[in-house]
Structures are given as structure tokens and as C-alpha cells.
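Convert to structure. Protein one:
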Amino acid sequence: MESEGEEDFSQWRSEQNRKQKKAGGWQNMGLDHTVFKGIERKGYRQPTPIQRKTIPCVLDGKDVVAMSRTGSGKTAAFVIPMLHKLKRRETAGIRALLVSPTRELALQTFKVVKELGKFTGLRCAVLVGGDLIEEQFAAIHENPDILIATPGRLLHVVVEMNLRLSRVQLVVFDEADRLFEMGFQDQLIETLKRIPEGRQTLLFSATLPKLLVDFAKAGLSDPMLIRLDVDEKISDKLSMVFLLCRCDQKLAVLLSLCRQMDRERKQTLVFCATMKHVEYVAGILNRAGVSNAFIYSQLDAAARKQNMQRFAERKCNILVVTDVAARGVDIPLLDTVINLHFPSKSKLFVHRAGRVARAGRSGTAISLIASDELPYMTDLFLFLSKPIIFSRDDDKYQENVTLIGRVPESITNLEADFFTSIHDSDAEMTIFELNVATKAEPAAVMKAKRREHESRIRQVAEEKAKQKEDIEKDRKEAAQESNMKKRAETMLQQADEKDIEEAFAVTVGSGKKRKAKASNAEKKLNSREEMKKRDKEFHFVPYASSDYQSEKQLALQKTDFAKQAEGAVVDLIADEEDGLRKQNNVRRWDRKKKKFVGTSEEEQVKKIRTEEGTWLPATYKTGIYEEWKEKQKIAMRKEEDEEGEAANWNVKRKGKWNRFGKKGSANGPQQQQGPRHSELKNKFQILKERRKKEKLQTYMQHRRKENLKMVSFKRFFS
């Protein structure tokens, strides 16, 4: 009854706060005092538009799918209502689950939760790859209220511990489109099966499509769609610069830009396509004397953390990364983003450029465009609904105007000697350059083909030149003949002035009437044409909607090649018995087993079946948790929903008398009185057991000696 009274009081207080406080601020939302105190300590003065829209919906218990551009405060938009709903610390188990696609984003969210929930007393744990799984087992045993995790490590821990998530009330998918694109379908489905159906689900991202069919597996029920800044997908304080250059000039331009940013002490992110490019660019910058750090997905977790810390503490101004840092990683006071390789997806450019111009600050996004990347740039401008404007020689740089320009040759010429010296003296750089050079470029292939067929090309060119000369001669002759004909016609058409005046006097009267009739007919025709045009416009159904390009770029990309290929393959089924038998009995040679084996659509991977019926790779269940439990001498506490089962050892068995109702209570079995005993022994219990063991051992030794005496005595008298 006390808990119901407390809930009624908190609900009444929230309603009163919403009515009495000023509109537009945090006070208007009726948040708990401990949460409001954490917001004030964090320094959030006013809620952002996405926070003002989503927080009331989340507090009302609705499922929410929210989209807003990067840097708009999406993390606080789901952390604040989550802390308000949980209110205080409970030891029942995990009550809120946050899933992030990358390790860096999960750690950043964990930091925000700790800062905003400082005064709530809620306990938070984070599960990410690269950390010791034994420490994560210990964190789960402490029964945290909030769990933040990446999908792979979350499922590994859940399956290994056979963890029940029946207490979870709130599930948040941060960067939801990335989660569903990265191939985390099995992990998410298995995790969601362990969570109650009455949960509240929240999906947040900077790029979400209008159609929510792709997120049906997330278990949404009547979700509320909130899409802000759909037309303005990037910040209005972001200045975009597009520099056209050749592929072999990109590194020279990048080095010149990085030197300038390092001199001006501007924090800069450099995005590359692969981890090999990251290492190569970092090596060039080091040899050029530009201090830098680098991050990519395969880098060791400790090295990633160390490099990130160096950049955050401004010990270096250049950070070379792949798209790992493009999703949700909040690097404060970032000034510039440089795209060495232009992204193939427009929404990926939005996430890259969203690292700058955050929270009202200005920033610059510089993209180096090669000739083969122009189609991607065109898609980006269609996605942003901006015109493509090429700069002129007399144009001046303006931050609010997006222009496309070319790089002067003087910049690339200055860095050419430096690159030559690097590749001549450094073997590591030379190896990378050789790997790049072995891949034939289209221009090089075209030059080689031209050399082989140079004689034939010249012959064809001479023939075409002769044909052009003949055509030009024929055209000139025809033009001269037409001029002569026009002169003869003009001579014949000349007439006397008197004849013209007489003809005008006869026809002037009737001509006016004909002109009036003609003008009326033209007006009728024009009105009919206008009506037809209106009808066509009214009944016209366009081939594509006005926001087709934008939604096309926001849609989820199906990355699973097997599923794409499955839709493109046409399997012809045989129409005879022998053909059907052959199709069913197709076999292939297995090199390991040295024999023919049956083929299957999927690779033969060892799998295990979970309690929910899902088949998962056997690597998720390795027995590490059981070994850890034996070492720690502890056992997992059973949850309250499992107390009625046979696994509950605190229930007395029904005896013969209880069964017939003669003895014992009529309400069934009685539970043991008193608190549960801890499975960990204190020092007094350990000392008592040791003394008992020593006493038993001395007694056994005494009995052994007595037995030996009896045996020797019997032998002596026998």
C-alpha cells in the first residue's frame, strides 16, 4: 500500500509541476528532483527540439521512433526520461537496456548516464567487446538497474549466463538503422525474446526512413514517429567545401590541409576508406612532423582508448579514422572534418559531417573529390536538396555558400618532392605504394591499349578528317545555291507602290473583321488549353514522390549478400523423376574429410539451441561462466519469477501429513523463516572448519595406529 501511495504522490507532483512551472523549460516536464538536479549540474539550460518532443511521449509510456540530425541532443532525450521512470535503486535486476552499435558509442552513453544520474543512486553497467568477460560477469551479479551494451557481447553474456531479462521495462536502440544494417539480426532477435512483451521500445538515429517496416523485428507497438530536421539534415552553421582533384593528388592536398590545421591548432578528423589507408596516412603525417592519432575497428581496445584520450586532451590535433567514429562518438570542440575518400552513401556523409557544428558551434567539412566520386557527390546534393554550383576564379569564400572548386597545381607541386623522398627512403611506405600501383587504373589501361593500336587509330582518324572536309565542302556549295535562289525570288516579288495602295484600300475593312474573329478563336483555344492543363495537373500521379531521393538515401541497405543473391537466382525445377532425384542428391568434395558430402545453403557451423528455440553459434556457450563461478564460489541469485519452480530451495517439501491436511498449514507449503544465508564464508567459519578437519585427521591417525597394534598382536600369538 505504501508503494501505491508513493506512486500516486509522484504522479500528482508531476502533474502539478507541469501546470505551475514555466513552459518550454525542464521544469515544465515534471521530472524527478534527483534527475533535475543532475540536469542542472550537467549545464543543460533549455531542452533542444528533439528533447522537447520526445521526453513527454516517453514519460507517457509510448513507443517512440525519433530522428534528428547529429549534435541535437538525442542521447539526453532518452537518458533523462529513463532515469525518471526508474527513480531509485532496486536490487531486483536489470530494468533498462541500451543497445549501441559500436564500443565507443556505448562508452559515451555510459558516461552521460553516470553524469545525469549522479543523484539518483541508480547503478549502471556496460558490456562491450575487448574487455575481460569475467569482470562483466561480476558486474551482472551486482544487479545493475541500467545495462548498456553492444549486441555481440550482450548476447554472449546472456547465453553464457543463461540470463533472464524478465525485469526489463525499457529498451533503447541507439543508432537504430546502423544496428539493423550491420548484421545484428540474430543477436537482437534472441535478446528481445528474453524481454517481456509489455516493454517500452525506443529507436533513435540521425538518419531514419519514413517507413518503419524494417524495424518490425524490434517489437514496436503503435509507435510514435518523430522526425525533426528532415529538410535540414545538416547544421546551418556547417560550411561545406568540395575540392576537385586527381586520385594521385589527394594525399598531397591532405598533407597541405593537415599542416595548416596543425599550425592553427584546430581539432580535425580525417576519414579514410579502410584501415590500411588509415595506417598509411598516419605514417605520412608522422614523417611530415604532424602529430596525429588513429582509430579503426580492428585496433586493440586499449590502443583505441589511448589514442582517443590523446586527441580529447589536445595532445595531437589530427585524428585519422574510418567510419567507426562517424556514428555517435561525441568529440567536443571539433573544428574540421576532412573526407579523404568520399562516402558512397549520403547518410554516411551526414554522420561524418555531424561530428562538427554541434551545439551551436560552427565547423567545416572538406571533401576531396576524384573523378570517379562525382556520382556520389551528385547523390549527396540531391539528398540535401541543394543546387550544384561550381566556383569561378574571381569568387571569394563564404561560409554560408556551398561551392565546388579545384585545387591549384602549386599546392600539389610543393608536396611532390616530399612524397618522392619518403617512398625512396622508407621501405614501409614503398610497400604500400607498390600495392596501390599493382592495381591498374582505367586511364593506364586505356593508354596501354592506345599504344598497341596506335597505327590503326591514326588511320581511322585520317579517314574521319577527310570525311569532315568533304561534308564541309558540300555544305558551302549548298549554301551558295540557296543564296542565289533567294535573290531571284526577291526581284520577282517587287511591285509598284500604286498597286500596293489599291490592294490595301480594298482589303483593309474586311481584314479588321477577320482579325477580330481570329483573336476570339485564339482566346477560346487558350482557355480550353488552360482547362486541359489544370485537369492534367489535378489528376496527375507522379512517378516518384517529392521526397523520393531523400527517403531513398535514408532507407536501410541490405548488407547481407546471401539474401541479395537469393532473390536474384532463378532455380529451375526439373520436370522428371530422374532430374528431381539428381537435384536432391547434389554432393561436393570435402578436402578435410577426403570424401563427397551433401551440400547445404549455409556453411556447416556448430550451433546450439537456446531455451527460446533459436539456433546460435556454439561459440556463445563456452563454459567460461561455470568456471568463473567455481573460482569465485558464488551462485547466481534466482529471480522472484522463478521461486515457484523446483529450482527454489527455500520451499519445504510437503510430507505425508501435509498432503492429507492433518498437520501443517492449509495454505500449502511454508517458507523457511529468517534471512537467507550467504554462500560466502567469513573467517570464523573457515577457522572452525579447519579445526574440525584437523581434529578428524588426528583421530584417523590415532585409529590407524591402534589398528596396526591389533594386527601385530594377532600375528604374534598366531
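Protein two, convert as well:
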Amino acid sequence: MRTTVISDLHLGAHRAVDVLRRPGPLAGLRAALAGTDRLVLLGDVVELRQGPLRDALAAALPVLAALGETLGPNGEIVLVTGNHDHHLIAPWLEARAVPDPPPPLGLERRLTVRELERVPALRAIRDAVRPARLVVAFPGVALRDDVYALHGHYLDRVTTLPSFERLALGAMARVVGEVPEGRGAATAEDFEAGLQPLYAWMHALAQSPAGTWSAGTQKTSASTWKVLAGDLGDRRRSPRELLLTRAFPLAVGALNRARIGPLSADISAPELRRAGLGAIGEVVWRLGITAEHVIFGHTHRAGPLPGDHRHEWLVPGTGARLWNGGSWVDEPVFSGGDPDGPYFAGRAVVLDDDAPPRLERLVAALD
């Protein structure tokens, strides 16, 4: 069996950055899926933070239908949710807790046919991908005895990068508690305890007339990162930008003193990579994942790539090898338009029956 893993499609995103709604990249992906028996959509498949659910699904379903048609009646599509599409799984999480305390989530729980039927958005996706069969797994999925895959947004609870979500989750931890440390000491529920309230608020906001705020916030965040990371090319910083770069470390220090962290004021491109890998390694450690290979998404940073330090892609203490297929979002601020760059869209992690996973470029042209 051949399995292809892609993540972070963000279908329905504003500014048309979701490249699979463009005819060329979608055709390229469909061609590359020839011979694939199982397609894993590893989270942030649908962009649910930038507007109403109905609009996001209207944008996403034609793409998902094309992928289902490509795999055909013998194919399987596995859907794992992330942070931007967490609401797809939220109704199931709520329903399973009524009327009795639910059984532990563990590392993989697959929705039954009846459970899927009760969630309208998942039912719409199931119908769209026919004739392929839809499987919904949460919080991750074992693809082989030695390969486990999850979106990776749990890392936001332990990363040192001072992102909006990390700050919000740091504050939330004052209420719900920190994620237990130690190998195998934490459960999916421990991570979800801080994430679910934040995601519910963000989803509710997206359904309101002000729901497009997230798209503008993401664009501003990318521009701010260029300034703080010093990635301005030959351009000199403006007085306002100079003030921002001087104030930022002070603000991070204040947050650390307030016990929101630990956070780092270093947000350079190398540190983005290191912090993401360190945090997902911590998630693997705390959840007690024993697989030899762990595939994740979320950071949009593909790897390991030629030139990467391979030891960074190993989980300390377990030796598990980390793999990330990047994203299917056109982000020139991060990618620089270079198809060989780590943030350039169009990659996947491909898995056969016996060999280790491998990172492949499936699409090179994004127009």
C-alpha cells in the first residue's frame, strides 16, 4: 500500500493563498497521486478561522471531491484535524462526553459511521470524497506499526516561540494547568484542555461579521516577522520598526516573568525551525509515542531537507525520526518564491509498505 501524507491545505483561505484551489497545482497533485492507495490529510485541511463555516466548506468541497475522484472506489482518505479546522471534530468531542465520562482518547480514535453521520461538516466531506472512503481519526493516526502521524498543533502549548496562540495558551494554562512533563506523562486530553476553549472562541468569532480579522492578522504577523527577524534585504528599518525591534525582547522578558513562557525573543528562520522541532519532540515525549517515525505538519516547514542538520530531526530520548511535508499555501514572505526553499508549497511525505518515509515534491508550479 502506498500512502501519501499532505497537510495544511487551508482550503477557503482569504487572499487565495490555498494553492489547491488553483487549477494547475490541483491537476499536478492529482497526477502525482497515481498509484496512491491512501491519502492522509493531516490537519488544517479547511480554513475555518477566516469566515463562516459554510463559506469555507463551499470553497473546500470541490477540491476534496477532485481528490476523492482521483483515488477512486478502492482508495481511502484519512482526515486528521488541526488547529484551523478543529471545529470539524469539536461536535464529536462534545457529544462523546454526554451523558457519561468518555473513554480516553489515546493516540488514535476513529469515528464510527454513526458518529461521523452526526457531524454535518464531516458528513459533507464524506459525501464529497466519494467514491473514495473517508476515515476520520483523532488526535492522530498510526499508518504503520512504526509510523505515527498527527497535525502537530499540540506543540503550541510547549513551544518557546511567542506566537499569538502560544501567549493565549500560556495564559490559559494558569486556569487549566500545564501539560504534565515526563515520558508518557501526558494524554491528548491534557493538551486539549487548553486548546479547546481557545479554538471555540476563535471559531465563534469567525462566524461573526468580524470573522475576517484573522486573515488580516496573519498578513500583519508575516510582515512583523520580517522586521523582527531582520529579513528586510537591503532596506533599512524605519524609526517605528527600530522601536519595535528594541521593545520586543523587553516584552518577551516581561511575559517570562509573568510565567506565560518560557519564551524566546529569537524568531530568526533557524530558530523557527529549531523551536518547532524541539516542541514537537516534547509532544512526542510527553504523549509516550513509541513509533520510529513521526509525521507532522502545522509549522509549514518541510523537512528534513538536504542541508538540514539531521540530529535536529530526531526526538531526544527516543530517537524517533521526524518528518514534515510542509504546506499547500503560497507564502512568499517565508518561501521567497524558491521551489527548493523549506516553506515553498507542494510537498508530501510518501510511505510504502516497508521503507522509511520519504519527502517528495509533488508540485513545483503554484500558478
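The radius of gyration is 20 Å. The chain has one domain: 3-361.
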